[in-house]
Amino acid sequence: MCFIFVNVLLALVAVSQVESGEFYVDWKNDRFVMDDETFQYVSAGMHYFRIPHQYWEQRINAAKSAGLNTIQTYVAWNAHEPEPGVYNFEEDLNIVEFIKTVQAHDMALILRVGPYICGEWNFGGLPPWLLGTPGIQIRTQDSRFMKAVNSWLNVLLPMIEPYLFANDGPIIMVQVENEYGSFGCDHDYINSLYKMFYEILGNKVVYFTTDGERDFELECGITPPNLFGTVDFSPEDDVDDVMRRFRKHQSRGPFVNSELYAGWCDWCGQEHQVTDPDHLGSMLETLLSRDASVNFYMWHGGSTFGLNTGASLADDPSDGIVFSPQSYDYNAPASEPGDVRLDKYWAIRNVTEKHFPGNKMPVPRDSKKLGGITLNPHQSGLLTDQIGPD
Question: Which of 43, 91, 250, 275 is the most buried (most CB within 10 A)?
């Protein structure tokens, strides 16, 4: 179906300037509404758990200076619950403090809770201790998996509920699952997750899904009527083709690219990925001109600390599995240590200044570094080290 656009003069709405929060999907007019105003977001993908908390403010401020009005982050369940019933919300995992920092910069916040998040993160954010249950089927309605998910959500969601936009906080949207259409096709499972979220957060927030742009991914991932569907695609994709496929599965509502790839992930043993800033700026212009909302994945990648790096099937099946390095630089507009790459920064800012005029923020300086670290040799303890490759 054709995408219907409403030519509205869009205002960049500061989250902290409103007295009462109302944010919703206007399905009839294909738009988001924030306190009676059309709202179009351009968000910066960054993961609080991949950034030392001392740098959260600098990373958020750099994104705002480029004309972005929203922050988007995953929530890593396995980082917060390393053992069943044992929780960590300190320092780099202090999600409430991260939320407050976003709000202090007058920006909206989108939380991608999952519980599965992918993100080139160990086990896609699921706790490895789940596998201690023989035969458990993750990302299904297996009662043992759903019980663990429900227990986690009953810890996390009450913590974030006071910071929903409806409660005068910055959180406008919460994602349920992540790119599920690439994994399975059980809409009952997605709806069961949604009910868990709804029991705690109610109708105070927009619930959404994110999926790849292929037909089968959209068919299996988009789950009406309770969840608003969004799509991922790259600066090299044809917007008309993507929108045509997407509208077969969700005919109305605003069009959202939840992962406009501002770079790409690296794999161990391969060259660092570098992508074209001009393509990025051109795609952003195309999307904003069509009244779409956009999230840059990633605006700032940061680092994967500890033993949390992920793995993936290689593009060429004969190559087997490829592994993520601890750097999650992503060739993003803001580099791993947080310094903006001026070519990508200006490719984005030139477009946002056209659509949201009035940005007078200076270009951010390079981030202040905390100091170096020393890496010492350490026996990995991997099973193959102990028993040999055979």
Answer: 43
ω into residue 225 within 30 of 0, thus cis?
yes
**CA–centroid distance for 38 within its chain:** 22
Question: Cβ(256)–Cβ(292) under 8 Å?
Answer: yes
DSSP string of 55-103? GHHHHHHHHHHTT--EEEEE--HHHH-SBTTB---SGGG-HHHHHHHHH
Q: Is 233 left (phi over 0), alpha (psi -120 to 50) or beta?
A: beta
Residues 6+ apart with CB under 8 A from 68: 42, 43, 44, 107, 296, 299, 348, 352
Q: Which of 191, 170, 61 is nearest to 111 (CA)?
A: 170
In the annotation, is 259 catalytic?
A: yes
From 120, 179, 217, 336, active-site residue:
179
- Residue 120: active-site member: no
Q: Please tell me the distance from the alpha carbon of residue 20 to that of residue 100, in angstroms, as a whole number.
A: 17
- From first to last of its 390 residues, the chain has per-residue pLDDT tens of 333 323 332 333 333 333 458 999 999 999 999 999 999 999 999 999 999 999 999 999 999 999 999 999 999 999 999 999 999 999 999 999 999 999 999 999 999 999 999 999 999 999 999 999 999 999 999 999 999 999 999 999 999 999 999 999 999 999 999 999 999 999 999 999 999 999 999 999 999 999 999 999 999 999 999 999 999 999 999 999 999 999 999 999 999 999 999 999 999 999 999 999 999 999 999 999 999 999 999 999 999 999 999 999 888 888 899 999 999 999 999 999 999 999 999 999 999 999 999 999 999 998 888 777 666 665 444 433 433 444
- H-helix or E-strand spanning residue 26: strand 23-26
Enter the pTM of the model. 0.91
C-alpha–C-alpha distance, residues 221 and 187, integer Å = 8
Angle at 166 between CA 175 and CA 177, to 5 degrees: 10
Q: Among 81, 177, 217, 259, which one carries the catalytic annotation?
A: 259
